[in-house]
Design brief:
The complex is a heterodimer of chains A (about 300) and B (about 625). Chain A is α/β, with parallel strands linked by helices and about 300 residues long. Chain A has one domain (about 1-300): P-loop containing nucleotide triphosphate hydrolases (Rossmann fold). Chain A is about 40% helix and about 15% strand. Chain A starts with a strand and ends in a 9-residue tail after the last helix. Chain B has a domain at about 535-610. The chains are: A alpha/beta (about 300), B mainly alpha (about 625). The structure holds adenosine-5'-triphosphate and magnesium ion (MG).
């Protein structure tokens, strides 16, 4: 299955959440692969703690491959090359965890038939080799998004399970922007239809994930005053209504990732050690990653109404 | 109120989902699976989902997190409505005859032989019963409301087909249930000196006056009801008796029998309701079934039914006929129960029915009808208080508010319940059957709470709220504590320690009634609080004084003398503004705020005096 991760705006938590998702999937025994298509700001290297690709690879990454400069992009075995001690002790029974980085210091580029063709080949191969392939697109309406929409409309990818996940924060502006990114003018559905997707079918393949959500009901919000909690509750209710009108309501919701103190300070993978040993990360966050990792590849969970 | 409807309903949902859903909806429970019990089980989920906005399940977009958590065994927000739909479909299917059209309203395992041990014939178990007509009305109205909203978010063709099929089956069942109710309505006419007549006269004649005077007065009081029964009741059962009513010396009673009345004519309808089977039930009203039928008919004419346009034209026509019988029955029993100028017959506990059976439970059922009439005519607080007295007395006598530590017959009404014979049930062969009711506590709770919200008299309201708290207390110690069905009802030994300790299997009959209590309580809590004129006056006066003192402080100019003081006074100003804004709706809040403001202002005044001294 290929999952295309996008977001309404920059800085929503798309890369961090996606990285944690593939990490969890590998832990759950699946072969997982992360393709960094965020050509403008490749950050996956930093999140996986890979010292030589902190801000992208050097001439042998995805950008160079798509541009036609090299026959194959570089693949990094995260378990082996990460600097993080707790990741290197790869537990038995886990799946492969591969990062295909982008290149440092490049920008976006418009699609050409050659690029789309290479993209198709890359995705077909990745889908054959891995159980889950996660493609981190960039935020908003981007060339990367257009390229993959074009690629997935091609017959070579017709039989591949392709899904779209839009990450957004739980605020008014993000809710409106997330709805618009999918349903608005020149949004995913518009562009997809223009490239030969069937609108209704494509719409069924899009789901939303809310990131860094403050849950007023959680016990660690005890520091909030009662008035603040009441207000948050009202706010939450209004946001829910707003989400429904913008078609990003619970019917299309795949998961909610709580606001986490560790992630607020640092872009990283949350290991079980962070929860149990260092006790810095919240168990709730890891559970949310874990659940989402299961749900996102569960075909039944994608069955709409 | 001690009762916390939201939390408690969620607890019940959690238990219901846990017990009922194991890879599919499993009907059953104490008393076995039948068309009534299975509907009661479904209504444990569907009733709150229909009646309370926060519990709606038909809009997967707005389901709240605590609801989702409670219904976890049923899946996530998308699976819950689909699996419920499946369960509803299975129910409608299970209770449809082999011709795939005729809905079945059989009493099944809720029937029992009058003489324990007699073997009940299958044909008897299959007999339609008014309880099933009534609960089917409630359930199908819930289903139709659910599908009408849910279908709007459905896009998958297969799912949409399923929604439509369920809606169609529910509509057919609803129409058939209404036809059934029209065929089980009964007018029992008798002469004043027949045994029925003597019982009726005894009941209404509280002042022990001459019989012929009382009969004349009673006929006079019932004249209008009499005329409408004769002229307006033209279809279904109860229509042919109309002409008899005008004969001299005739008395009557009306309401619902236990099933389709013997020789009841078929209802002519353009709708597809399947076969209308012949009835066998006695042509005389049963108080229990009358009450049950009235509740169902009330749901048919409820605001929700009208607003959502749940009825099709043919159903609306039948509903109108039922509404007429509803009003006549309600007025009839109110007239009887409050007849005379002294003590009401209702106040003479226990109520004695015309067949000579007497139960406190009957007094409770009659109180319910009297209250429904009082609601319609906006009764005086004095009259409501008299009903309140009756309810309190009933709670006492049935050992709900009074302790019972030694075995005593009064507890039989809770366990094993009251039995009454179903006359005519042996017409198809087999032994005479009886019906069992054990719902005095939840019914009393509902009536108490209704009365609390009807009265505008503070003390009566407090009394009724206190009483409902005690009844709730009683109900909550009867929840099953151990075994698979924990969290559901009924475990009577929880309240009466000497009762057999067994019976830890869920009774959907009872649990559904507890759910109704909670739904009722939620509705009452949602009403605005009763406003006290006295508090309103105090609030107004306090606010005037506070305003005045505040203006004086401002005039003194101290506000410009320091940041801290200015902020303080601004806060006082904001508080006063808040108090003004709410005082009409919530004078109590305004009083509290004004008092605090006055105290603050007085501190300033006191400090000023210290300066001079
Ligand atoms: N659950 C969370 N709780 C708190 N902070 C979070 C959470 N998820 C992500 N963040 C933080 O939000 C910031 C943005 O995250 P991230 O870089 O993943 O966003 P992005 O959508 O990939 O942004 P860009 O569009 O720039 O690539 C980071 O600092 C990250 O650590
Ligand atoms: Mg990123």
């Amino acid at each position: 299955m290929i999952i295309f991760a996008t977001s309404d705006k920059g800085g929503t938590g798309r890369s961090v959440t996606s990285s944690n998702l593939v990490y969890r999937q590998a832990l759950q025994g699946k072969d997982a692969c992360y393709l960094d298509f965020d050509f403008g700001s490749p950050t996956a290297g930093a999140i996986f703690d890979l010292s030589d690709v902190q801000a992208g690879s050097d001439g042998d990454g995805l950008h160079s491959y798509l541009a036609g400069a090299i026959p194959e992009p570089r693949r990094i075995n995260v378990w082996a090359e990460t600097q993080r001690e707790s990741l290197r002790n790869r537990p038995a029974g886990v799946g492969r965890l591969t990062l295909v980085p982008s290149d440092r210091g490049r920008g976006e580029f418009p699609s050409t038939p050659g690029i789309v063709q290479r993209c198709v080949e890359l995705l077909v191969r990745a889908d054959e080799e891995y159980d889950v392939v996660l493609v981190d697109l960039s935020a908003g309406r981007s060339y990367a998004t257009e390229i993959v929409l074009e690629a997935t409309a091609r017959p070579e990818l017709a039989d591949v399970e392709a899904r779209w996940v839009v990450f957004h924060r739980w605020t008014r502006q993000h809710i409106v922007a997330a709805g618009s990114l999918v349903h608005g003018a020149r949004g995913i559905l518009d562009i997809g239809t223009a490239h030969g997707h069937k609108r209704a079918e494509l719409a069924e393949k899009v789901r939303f994930v809310r990131t860094a959500v403050l849950d007023p009901a959680a016990s660690d919000q005890a520091a909030l005053r009662p008035e603040q909690l009441v207000w948050l509750d009202v706010c939450n209710m209004r946001l829910k209504d707003l989400a429904v009108t913008n078609k990003v309501g619970q019917v299309k919701l795949l998961g909610i990732i709580p606001l986490d103190p560790v992630l607020q300070w640092q872009e990283q993978l949350l290991t079980n050690d962070d929860v149990w040993l260092h006790r810095t990360a919240n168990e709730r966050t890891v559970n949310a990653f874990e659940d989402l990792a299961k749900k996102i590849v569960d075909v039944d969970a994608w069955e709409g109404l | 109120m001690q009762i916390k409807p939201r939390q408690q309903l969620l607890d019940i949902w959690r238990a219901t989902a846990r017990v009922s859903y194991r890879d599919g909806w499993v009907p059953g429970g104490l008393g076995g699976s039948n068309s009534i019990s299975d509907a009661e089980q479904l209504l444990c989920i569907m009733a709150p989902a229909t009646e309370i906005p926060l519990f709606r399940l038909d809009q997967p977009d707005t389901v709240t997190d605590d609801v989702l958590e409670a219904l976890r065994p049923l899946g996530d927000n998308l699976q819950i409505p689909q699996r419920l739909l499946r369960a509803l479909y299975d129910y409608l299917h299970r209770y449809t005859a082999a011709d795939k059209i005729t809905p079945i309203f059989s009493g099944g395992t809720y029937f029992s032989p009058e003489q324990g041990g007699d073997k009940v014939e299958q044909e008897q178990l299959d007999m339609d019963v008014v309880d099933s007509f009534s609960i089917s009305v409630t359930l199908t109205l819930a289903i139709i409301g659910f599908t009408k909203v849910f279908r709007q978010v459905v896009t998958r063709a297969a799912l949409l087909r399923q929604v439509e099929e369920v809606e169609q089956m529910a509509n057919r069942r609803l129409t058939a249930a209404m036809a059934g109710l029209l065929r089980s309505f009964t007018v029992n006419v008798f002469t004043a000196d027949s045994p029925f007549g003597q019982e009726l006269v005894r009941t209404v004649n509280q002042e022990r006056r001459a019989t012929h005077v009382v009969v004349d007065e009673l006929r006079l009081a019932l004249r209008e009801i009499n005329a409408r029964l004769r002229d307006d009741v033209t279809i279904g059962s109860g229509a042919s008796e109309g002409s008899e009513l005008d004969n001299p010396n005739r008395l009557f009673e009306c309401g619902w029998s236990w099933g389709v009345v013997r020789d009841a004519p078929k209802i002519e309808t353009s709708a597809e309701v399947g076969e209308q089977r012949d009835g066998v039930a006695q042509n005389a009203p049963y108080l229990y079934f009358t009450t049950v039928a009235l509740d169902a008919i009330q749901a048919l004419s409820s605001e929700r039914t009208r607003l959502l346009g749940l009825l099709d034209p043919e159903q609306a026509r039948l509903a109108q006929s039922l509404q007429l019988r509803f009003e006549l029955t309600r007025s009839y029993w109110t007239t009887i129960a409050t007849f005379g100028s002294g003590r009401w017959p209702l106040e003479d506990l226990p109520w004695r029915a015309t067949d000579g059976i007497e139960f406190d439970y009957f007094s409770l059922l009659i109180s319910g009808m009297v209250m429904q009439s009082m609601l319609a005519v906006r009764a005086t607080n004095a009259n409501l208080r008299r009903v309140a007295d009756v309810l309190e007395e009933l709670a006492n006598r049935s050992r709900i508010t009074r302790r019972s530590t030694e075995p005593e017959t009064a507890v039989g009404v809770h366990f094993p319940g009251l039995h009454f014979p179903l006359e005519g049930s042996d017409a198809l062969g087999g032994p005479g059957l009886q019906w069992t009711v054990a719902d005095i506590s939840p019914t009393l709770f509902k009536r108490t709470l209704n009365l609390a919200s009807m009265t505008t008299d503070g003390p009566t309201r407090s009394r009724m709220l206190e009483l409902s708290d005690s009844i709730w207390q009683h109900l909550s110690i009867r929840v099953i504590r151990h075994g698979d069905d924990h969290g559901l009802w009924d475990w009577a030994a929880g309240a009466y320690a000497y009762l057999p300790n067994g019976g830890s299997q869920v009774s959907w009959y009872y649990t559904k009634r507890v759910v109704d209590c909670l739904v009722n309580a939620a509705n009452v809590i949602n009403e605005p609080p009763l406003r006290s004129e006295l508090l309103l006056q105090i609030a107004a006066d306090l606010l005037n004084e506070a305003d005045h003192l505040y203006d004086r402080e401002l005039l003194s100019g101290i506000a410009i003398r320091g940041e801290a003081l200015r902020v303080d006074l601004e806060r006082v100003g904001a508080e006063l503004k808040r108090a003004r804004a709410v005082y009409r709706e919530r004078p109590g809040v305004a009083v509290a705020v004004a008092e605090e403001v006055l105290r603050k202002l007085d501190r300033l005044a006191a400090a000023r005096r210290a300066d001079i001294g």
